[in-house]
């Protein structure tokens, strides 16, 4: 029997989980006030030393909070699942939302009046002093115009910290913070004063020493707090726990961890302090099973049950981290997403299977907690044990949207192609949504921008214009195109133009972070900042990249195929007629949904005729083959407008009848591949200020919904402002030939050059994964997709009726977790339009 099932969580874990589920996220002011005071006090110091003094003040004065039942302590905020503000990156958007953040559509936060008053006072210092201000001053007006017109956005790092990093947790576990200080002292003593970089390096090492002494004090403050609580605790069991917590915090992370509990506490302190230093999200725990397993293996006194409870506690703590964004960005990152990606399995740097006991404990913790964080991932390769994949499938079919699954056979060579060594590539982790990274050696700047490929298609169809504005270059009136090559020529020129300004905008923000926001606490945990004597933001890492991600690939591919089929090949409509229909939004009011062509809206006679045509041609009675042929027949027949409807509706139905990406049809899939390649190959031409290369990704977070509002009607029949396809997934409802056909289409994209990550969503009915047979089918699907060189796949296992019921009665479904894009979230906290996007995805079955 393949099914193993899972143990039940302890009562402690259920109580801690309830705190998270019931929490109402708040904005708090303490960090902003302390940071502002530190900046005022350090006006004459260089940036790296000012940042060290900011860290010192925050670590020494931020309120210390230990929540009931905790075994692993350390909190960013007083209230559960709340957030602090980091005004050194940006602040004005917060002030504008003091009255509306609690009621906005996506990710609302409470802001008490006293908090707003304290923030308002702190913000008086910041005009002209933020990284956002500096980046804006560097950016050309053309780049700003591209952003304003929905071609791309760099708002992620424009408004906040960078994050998107996996640090060397193992280093701290083995040498402690005191070891980092000793390392900095050694480098200081070895400096050559004749070296022109001496002054900068000296400042960096001094900043590290200041930061790490303050970090040790932060842990000691928790030791004192735990001892204080123990002195007031009447329950002897809890008193003993608090006394042990106090002992742990006096020892770690100042010194190396000596047992598994200390290792768990060290790991969490690192994670917590990284979040406090910077507002960057996607600070990812990386290969948790690799750096934690040696401490479990060596701990001869801990029971397996208590060790599991400690891991469960870390899972709870990861859900306590939260972040607020501006109203627009909140829609793109809907679901209080913080993207702390934790990865297990895969290979060792030597190329052996890396699966261990902690790998399975992470699956158990995910089931015990059933919360959105961490963004739990597994790595799969040819040497992955079947048992590991079956257990992952058991987690996936619970409907939590995790683990996401990554293919070593694609990611390792993709990283090597970017200059990463074989051993480092084998040791990759996932950060953020889906971004592969050579862990603790990379400043990847993943998620550096959202780039709207479908918007570039729309601009191409309008000769470089957005409305009446000539935003892009003049590339020719589409009505004069005589072949698909005319389109590709124009599209490629428009793509080159807009990617150029994307790179400019990203580099302006990159420079601003290097100049105004170097991070002296984070940097020593990434190689080779200590050896080079410079912060991560100034190029201290071994590997430096910038990774903007595209979305709208399937929409573009389907649109280009529809033009090829109906305009250039079959000549059923002219480009002039197509343009007229697009400009008129197919006769639909803006926001009005069009009915898709499918069996549900065809007459009984149309279906009968299609079936009769198939049977008369091949006499097949195989149900699967028959269904596929019927769909192909329906999609290739001309569908005319019903009597009384507009001519535009007839054109829309014709376009919508074209074969679509996601059904294993080479003619369609290879066009989508080419459109994606045009973007990816253009991106990789550029360099960043840290000496690294741009690399493309294809994933949307949930921006496919938000930025779909910036895109007019498309030649695939999609009306204006409708959501775009997510990541490399087919358009919603268009992959109608089953999960294997859909996966085959996605695998035809060139995942190797999209080395910043690709994201593929599939949604299954729960019955599809039921029993041992469902697990076998699932494992076979993953192995087959990966054999064809797909990079990533993730799953929602939930039926449409459950999601609709949750929309109607959110209180009854507060613990329903779904996969949005590269992250999971509570379904009921998502904006309705994001919920609708998830509901509209094709429900697959075997």
Automatic annotation (TrEMBL):
Domain named PFL: residues: 11-719
Alphabetical list of Pfam families matching this protein: Gly_radical, PFL-like
Keywords: Acyltransferase, Lyase, Organic radical, Transferase
Catalytic EC class: transferase
GO molecular function: formate C-acetyltransferase activity; lyase activity
GO cellular component: cytosol
Residues bearing the modification Glycine radical: 822
Domain called Glycine radical: residue spans: 726-846
EC number: 2.3.1.54
Name of this protein: Formate C-acetyltransferase
Record lineage: Bacteria, Pseudomonadati, Pseudomonadota, Alphaproteobacteria, Hyphomicrobiales
